[in-house]
Amino acid sequence: MSTYGPDDGVELPVPVFDPDEKPLTDPDLDPDAKRSGFVAFAGRPNAGKSTLTNALVGAKVAITSDKPQTTRRAIRGVLTREDAQIVLVDLPGVQRPKDSLTGRMQRRVDSELREADVTLLVLNGEEGVGPGDRYIASQLRETRGPTVIAVNKVDRLSRGETMAVLVAAAELEIGEDVFPISAKSGIGVQPLLEHLVGLLPKGPFYFPVDESSDQPQHVLLAELVREQILRRTFQEVPHAVEVQIEEIERPGDDLHVIVANAWVESPSQKGILIGAGGKMVRTIGTAARKELERELGTRVHLDLQVKVRRNWRSDDTLLDRLEID
After folding, report:
1. Separation between Cα atoms, residue 69 and residue 67, nearest integer Å
2. Could you tell me the sign of the dihedral formed by the alpha carbons of 10, 13, 14, 20, in that order?
3. Which residues pair with 185 in a beta bridge?
4. What whole-number distance in Å separates Cα of residue 252 and Cα of residue 245?
5. Interhelix angle for 267-274 vs 279-296, to 10°?
6. Are residues 136 and 43 in contact, defined by beta-carbon separation less than 8 angstroms?
7. CA-only gyration radius of the chain, Å
8. What are residue 15's phi and psi, to 5 degrees?
């Protein structure tokens, strides 16, 4: 088992990638020299898988928060460079299914891990290696491709703490390589990327060179709205909220009109999201509008409604509409 860090001659920290500086493929490049494939991210909730996906892709393709169950779908981020295309599959955290929602999420995790060319186990360095990580590692022994381990958030650890968690990661006995990284600051991300690319099979690219994700636009916009809700709510509310884009119109070149529903499971949760005198929903709407404008490159008028649908997490009809499969 190998580990990679400052003592291996790697210049640290490594900056998060800038998409404007990302080289695209040369169409005349010998196809036999190209590598392409899918790298599935496994790990417990809040390990930093989405932050790492965004850092590698160089664009925001997955929302982030400190709340477990932030990621509910398999999010594919695409990084293309001259010699390789790596499709990063950001997965929900591995968990025991409790309802139709988490059951669907776990089935998607299992499916993506079975099909991936490479699996990356992302560990939360601050929390160390726990029983949940050991359980996931045992499941990854059944995957068909190689497994790599990334110990994330090492920027928050002392040198001694980092070494201890690296040793614990190596003791999981899956794969041959352990990388200490910080997805947030970029520490160790470049060496990890180069290693993952080297594990990909040779073959043609799966996506156009200018594509950074396969998410439908309405799903990404809904996620950007949900991200702002997650950042402002606590206790049971973040787990009980889902956002659906009902309508997108473009009445002018510099304006999008977006109608969105925030689904919750009880009137009390609706009251929390709306807030006294509507203050909370206005705050969420203002923050979400800025994110939508950044994504769309136009002004946005956002009509955000909060609606109750009891036990929606076990409502297969709504889950189908929300495209959570």
Report:
1. 6
2. negative
3. none
4. 19
5. 70
6. yes
7. 20
8. -70, 155
What's the distance, Cα to Cα, between the start and end of the chain in Å? 36
* Amino acid occupying residue 304: L
Q: C-alpha 96: how far from its chain's center?
A: 19
Per-residue pLDDT 10s for the chain (325 aa) are: 555 554 443 333 333 444 444 444 444 556 567 999 999 999 998 899 999 999 999 999 999 988 877 999 999 999 999 999 999 999 998 778 889 999 999 999 899 999 999 999 999 999 999 999 999 999 999 888 999 999 999 999 999 999 999 999 999 999 879 999 999 999 999 999 999 999 999 999 999 999 999 999 999 999 999 999 999 999 889 999 999 999 999 999 999 999 999 999 999 999 999 999 999 999 999 999 999 999 999 999 999 999 999 999 999 999 999 999 8
- pTM for the predicted model, two decimal places: 0.86
The CATH label, of 1.10.3720.10, 3.30.300.20, 2.40.50.730, 3.40.50.970, for the domain at 217-321 is: 3.30.300.20
> b vs e for 248-270, b when ≥16 Cβ sit within 10 Å of the residue's Cβ?
beeeeeeebebebbbbbbeeebb
Kindly report the backbone phi and psi dihedral angles of residue 5, in degrees, each rounded to the nearest multiple of 5, phi listed first.
-165, -165
- Using an 8 Å Cβ cutoff, are 233 and 273 in contact? yes
CB 226 within 8 A of CB 260: no
- Tell how strand 299-308 and strand 255-264 pair up: parallel
Domain-by-domain residue ranges, the chain? Answer: 2-199, 217-321
d(CA 136, CA 95): 9
Q: Which two tokens stand for residue 202?
A: 């040779």
Q: What's the farthest any 2 CA atoms get from each other in the chain?
A: 63
Contact by Cβ (8 Å): 132, 68: no
- CATH code, residues 2-199: 3.40.50.300
Beta strands in 154-290 (DSSP E): 177-180, 242-252, 255-264
**Cα 129 to Cα 133: distance, rounded to the nearest angstrom:** 6
Residue that has been written with the tokens 């860090």 in this structure: 5
